[in-house]
Write a structure and sequence with these properties.
The complex is a heterodimer of chains A (about 300) and B (about 280). With about 300 residues, chain A is mostly helical. Chain A has two domains: about 1-40, no CATH class; about 60-295, MetI-like (MetI-like fold). In chain A, about 70% of the residues lie in helices and about 0% in strands. In chain A, helix 3 (about 65-100) packs parallel to helix 7. The longest helix of chain A has about 35 residues, at about 10-40. Chain B folds into two domains: about 1-50, no CATH class; about 70-280, MetI-like fold. Helices cover about 75% and strands about 0% of the residues of chain B. Chain B has helices spanning about 1-30, 35-40, 50-60, 70-100, 105-115, 125-135, 140-165, 170-180, 185-190, 195-210, 215-220, 230-235, 245-265, 265-280. The radius of gyration of chain B is 23 Å and the shape is globular. Classes of the chains: A mainly alpha (about 300), B mainly alpha (about 280). Chains A and B meet through helix 1, helix 3, helix 4, helix 5 and helix 6 of A and helix 1, helix 4, helix 5, helix 6 and helix 7 of B.
């Protein structure tokens, strides 16, 4: 595996390092350097223009005193939990159903997964049209004779965040299906056969053997979905625009609004730091468990 | 058994309808005129095939101040995506090659640092990058946006190639080295010829990501340089006169077509790209 014992030609030795140098420098500056830069901004008194002074936790105090931030954080929690749980449930069941030697499986899989190829802006635009009360689903059901049918979540401050869940699940659940299907195909058939010989029913086998075996798949899916949820920005911009009012704001839209349209660079950078902390809180245990697995 | 199989087919069909319905509604709506939209429902079929909305979305609809449709923005996206995909894929291939076949002290640490780079929320680099682009005189330009896409795509492309090349036996490379082949010769003659599948995965992944990007586009581009996702959002939210849902839907389909076509043509590679990051290699 190791190639470090080769004869030393000084240029030949350097060449691989020269090749990765641009990426290394870019990573160092544009990821790690920028994170530190943003951290500094969040400790400064910056407003319209960045200032490089020290204001302690002032910006964080302003952030935490802001109702809109807490609405955004709560929305992310509601959206994140529902989005992840529903995607996992739908994805798992579709994968199990598809794994029953279904005819035209390829075509069905293609249909389930195509939303993943779309931009969230397109998804948001489509669902905004379908869910708008005057012209969309509500009107369709009323004209079909169900006069009292009401579905106005999109314009209802209390319910609008759930329309984001609907559109998000539509876009991403096919991805979970693909992951679970790959996991199911990897299950050792002999174990299943042995359990059948012992007289276990298929639902029992799924519950006791197959689904617990998919643990790593769920783990990966949860990481990816959490990541999508925390970063979700375009879907909300396109579907609700953060509204009605700021009822469907999430941290990503909050940060954009404060940093780029309201001239509150300090608060914006503090919000970005909070998002980074949230992601780290999830990734660090993940990386830790990955590394431990490798060592064993 | 047959009853439960029937139930399974039934549920699968219902799910298929759920996934297909928005696309069907979009296509139907884009083919109607405004009267048909007002008098019908989202699922009522158009009386005739009417492509006026498509024409308007392409070359006449208002996206903010200008009313020239999505045409220009579509080509903006093409001219942003092409160089960004090519450069980030080439660099990713070379990085992956070095990280697996020319390991050096600290190369694993470097890979780890890069991996974390795939996970940070981009909000945390938005402000510093905006200042940097301003400092470089690239604010609001396509070149600035291309640069941003290359930088933040590198971690993903490197990951793809690294995970692929790690399965290539080192004996192959070592044998060539004993025969006197150098760094580039081995890359050209041995590594590149077996890289087609992962090249396709990387190109498709980067193409989809960058074409669909909205965050970088809305923050770092301005006016005539905006990519199509930003223009689509402007078009939908431009509130002058009557709301033309048919034009909105045609515009959304136009914006979605390139990535949709790629998915239909090369779906297998698309799925591999999606799962490559999740199922560790």
């Amino acid at each position: 595996m190791s190639v470090s014992n080769k004869p030393k030609f000084s240029f030949g030795e350097l060449l691989p390092k020269i090749v990765v140098a641009p990426t290394f420098v870019a990573t160092l500056i544009f990821i790690y350097g920028f994170v530190l830069w943003n951290a500094w901004l969040s400790f400064s008194s910056s407003r319209m223009l960045p200032k490089y002074d020290w204001a302690g936790l002032k910006q964080y105090e302003r952030l935490f005193a802001n109702d809109r931030w807490w609405v955004a954080a709560e929305n992310l929690l509601i959206f994140g939990v529902l989005f992840i749980v529903i995607c996992l449930v739908i994805g798992l069941f579709l994968a199990i159903f598809l794994d029953q030697k279904i005819r035209a499986e390829g075509a069905i899989r293609t249909i389930y997964l195509y939303p993943m190829a779309l931009s969230f802006i397109v998804t948001g635009t489509a669902w905004k049209w379908i869910l708008n009360p005057e012209q969309g689903l509500q009107k369709m059901f009323r004209e079909m004779g169900w006069e009292s049918f009401t579905f106005d979540w999109l314009v209802n401050s209390d319910m609008a965040i759930y329309t984001v869940v609907i559109a998000g699940v539509w876009q991403s659940s096919g991805f979970v299906m693909a992951l679970c299907l790959a996991g199911l195909r990897g299950v050792d058939e002999n174990i299943v056969k042995a359990a059948r010989v012992d007289g276990a029913s298929m639902p029992l086998i799924y519950r006791k053997i197959i689904i617990p075996g998919l643990g790593p798949v769920f783990f990966s899916a949860i990481i990816v979905l959490t990541h999508i949820a925390i970063k979700s920005f375009d879907l909300i911009v396109a579907l609700t625009g953060g509204g009605p009012g700021y009822a469907t704001d999430v941290p990503a839209t909050f940060m954009y609004t404060y940093a780029f349209t309201r001239g509150q660079i300090g608060v914006g950078s503090a919000a970005a730091m909070m998002m980074l902390m949230a992601v780290l809180a999830i990734i660090v245990p993940y990386l830790y468990s990955e590394l431990r697995e490798k060592k064993q | 058994m047959s009853i439960s199989r029937g139930l399974i087919y039934c549920l699968l069909a219902i799910a298929a309808v759920f996934y297909l319905l928005p696309l069907v509604v979009m296509v139907i709506t884009s083919l109607k005129d405004l009267d048909e939209i007002r008098n019908g429902t989202i699922l009522s079929l158009p009386q005739s095939l009417n492509f006026d909305a498509w024409g308007k979305a392409w070359s006449g609809a208002c996206t903010g101040a200008s009313c020239e449709g999505l045409k220009g923005y579509f080509w903006n996206s093409v001219s942003i995506v092409a160089p960004a995909v090519i450069v980030s894929t080439i660099l990713g291939a070379l990085n992956g090659y070095v990280l697996t076949k020319w390991k050096f002290r600290g190369s694993n640490l470097f890979f780890g640092m890069l991996l974390i780079g795939t996970m940070i929320p981009f909000q945390v680099i938005l402000l510093p990058m905006a200042r940097t682009l301003g400092f470089l005189g690239l604010s609001g330009s396509s070149s600035g946006l291309i640069m941003v896409h290359i930088i933040y795509g590198l971690a993903f492309t490197t990951l793809f190639f690294r995970n692929y090349y790690i399965t290539v036996p080192n004996e192959l490379v070592n044998a060539a080295r004993i025969d006197g082949a150098g760094f580039w010769m081995i890359f050209w003659r041995i590594i590149l010829p077996i890289s087609t599948p992962i090249l396709v995965v990387s190109v498709i992944w980067q193409f989809t990501q960058i074409w669909n990007d909205f965050l970088f586009g809305v923050v770092y581009s301005a006016g005539d340089n905006q990519p199509i996702t930003v223009a689509l959002n402007n078009l939908v939210n431009t509130s002058t006169g009557v709301k033309e849902y048919n034009v909105d839907m045609a515009a959304a389909i136009i914006a979605a077509l390139p990535t949709l076509l790629v998915y239909i043509i090369a779906g297998k590679y698309f799925v591999r790209g999606l799962t490559a990051g999740a199922v560790k290699g």
